[in-house]
Amino acid sequence: MKVIYPGTFDPPTFGHLDIIKRLSQMFDEVVVALLINGNKNPIFTLDERIEMIKSEVDDHNLKNVSIKTFDGLMVNFAKEEDAHIIARGLRGMADYEYERNLARVNEALYKGLETVYLLSNPDYSHISSSMVKEVASFEGDISSFVSKDVECKMKEKFNY
């Protein structure tokens, strides 16, 4: 069974990695799908985000995880991948409200598409990519939010 875990992953955090590792134990195939979104202005290029996630996946020997990109509607990507399950991580109620509505729209566009939710590990439920970028922009310590590799790349981006 294949699952798609879509996102921007700018940058990938310990929370993202935790979800990827857990999905790899639950599904035969995990596709980490990086969104190419013209409405967002990521600090990392698509290639940099792919490289960071690939490094994390390789470091944890997750053989059933692949990394792909998509542009446009995620449901179209799911159809192309012949996947019927999307996974999303939930940090709290605000995430749930947003994700529930998105899942309903996705299911309306692609009958039979299911969305499964994984609750964030409590150790990571306070972490978001936006928060990591903000802390890093002020030269704060992000070592408890991202891997050493991602931390180094964040420091390079913010020139410290």
Describe this entry's structure for a reader.
This protein has 160 residues and is an alpha/beta fold. It contains six helices and five strands; from the N terminus they run E-H-E-H-E-H-E-H-E-H-H. It has helices at residues 14-26, 46-59, 74-80, 93-109, 129-137, 148-157, and strands spanning 2-7, 29-36, 65-71, 85-90, 114-119. The protein has a three-stranded parallel sheet with strand order 1-2-3, sandwiched between helices. The relative contact order is 0.20. The model has no long low-confidence stretch (mean pLDDT 94). Homohexamer. ATP binds at residues 8-9, 16, 89-91, 99, 124-130. Its cofactor is Mg(2+). It is an enzyme of class 2 (transferase). Its EC number is 2.7.7.3.
Quick overview of this protein structure:
InterPro entries: Cyt_trans-like (IPR004821), PPAT (IPR001980), Rossmann-like_a/b/a_fold (IPR014729). With 160 residues, this protein is an alpha/beta fold.
Q: Can you tell me the residue ranges where pLDDT is under 50 for at least 5 consecutive residues?
A: none
Largest sheet: 3 strands, parallel
Number of strands: 5
- The oligomeric state is single chain
Tell me the strand order in the biggest sheet.
Answer: 1-2-3
How far apart the termini lie comes to 43 Å
Backbone CA Rg? 15 Å
Number of helices, where a helix is a run of at least 4 consecutive DSSP H or I residues: 6
Mean pLDDT across every amino acid position: 94
Task: Give a topology summary.
Layout lengths: L1 E6 L6 H13 L2 E8 L9 H14 L5 E7 L2 H7 L4 E6 L2 H17 L4 E6 L9 H9 L10 H10 L3
Pathway: Cofactor biosynthesis; coenzyme A biosynthesis; CoA from (R)-pantothenate: step 4/5
GO molecular function, one term: pantetheine-phosphate adenylyltransferase activity
Catalytic activity: (R)-4'-phosphopantetheine + ATP + H(+) = 3'-dephospho-CoA + diphosphate
